[in-house]
TrEMBL record:
One of its GO terms (biological process) is negative regulation of DNA-templated DNA replication initiation. It comes from Microbulbifer yueqingensis. This is Regulatory inactivation of DnaA Hda protein. The keyword Transmembrane helix does not apply. PANTHER family: CHROMOSOMAL REPLICATION INITIATOR PROTEIN DNAA, DNAA REGULATORY INACTIVATOR HDA. Coiled coil: none annotated. Keywords: DNA replication.
Length: 241
């Protein structure tokens, strides 16, 4: 369906995408169970899948938010109109205003759906947006920490709608994969993280990958400013761990 080229790709909501949230930055081991989901999302973001709705869920640190933002980055590269909406940042706002006109976009990505429990105004607004997007031929990518059945929504019609689309559960990385992902991310940032330093961070920092990558980003900035290599003493000094 042809879209109005005058619709902005990003609405002025103070929401931005992380530069490092790309499909290339999402670590996949050779036999990774998440590979099917990532492949589907790449095709979905580029408009190559007929499905109108994909629901992606996984525990904190599994990479749900990363992949939703990656889909938006990919949609932008494909010249598609899109919007990324992290509900964790937007719940204090009026959902009717936030969702107004989004059905004109080609891809709407809504994150943090697990926060909708008890938010009846948001549930009603999302139900109507869901219907408008489907009726208009658009696509929705939805992310949460719980499955559609596990959201505990009060609006039964919305709970039912969320079970209609294609659903993927992301599996969290084991420690070996986290170590490999941490070292790979460091190389993508332009430096090599020694294995002993990566192990030190893995065993002492918060365990989920989002926190580990935040530690890496903090160390990278501090290393550039201090013009020092990232060693275990430097990690202790900067991260206080």
């Amino acid at each position: 369906m042809e879209r109005d080229s005058g619709v902005p790709q990003q609405l002025p909501l103070g929401v931005s995408l992380r530069d490092d949230a790309t499909f290339d930055n999402f670590y996949l081991s050779p036999d990774d169970p998440n590979r099917q989901a990532v492949t589907a999302l790449k095709d979905f973001a580029a408009g190559r899948l007929p499905e109108q709705v994909i629901y992606l869920w996984g525990e904190e640190g599994a990479g749900v938010s990363h992949l939703l933002q990656s889909a938006c980055q990919s949609a932008e590269e494909a010249g598609r109109s899109f919007q990324y909406l992290p509900l964790g940042e937007l719940l204090p706002m009026n959902p009717a205003v936030i969702f107004d006109g989004l059905e004109q976009l080609e891809l709407v990505c809504i994150d943090d759906l697990h926060l909708l429990q008890g938010q009846q105004q948001w549930q009603t607004a999302l139900f109507h947006l869901y219907n408008r997007v489907r009726d208009g031929g658009g696509q929705m990518l939805l992310g949460a920490r719980r499955s559609p059945r596990g959201l505990g929504l009060e609006l039964a019609d919305l709970a039912s709608r969320l079970q209609w689309g294609l659903t993927f559960q992301l599996q969290s990385l084991n420690d070996s994969d986290k170590l490999a992902a941490l070292r790979r991310r460091s190389r993508l940032r332009g430096f090599d993280l020694p294995e002993d330093v990566a192990l030190y961070i893995l065993h002492r920092a918060p365990r989920h990958t989002g926190a580990l990558f935040s530690c890496l980003e903090q160390l990278d900035r501090a290393s550039l400013m201090a013009k020092r290599k990232i060693t275990i003493p430097f990690v202790k000094e900067v991260l206080k761990i």
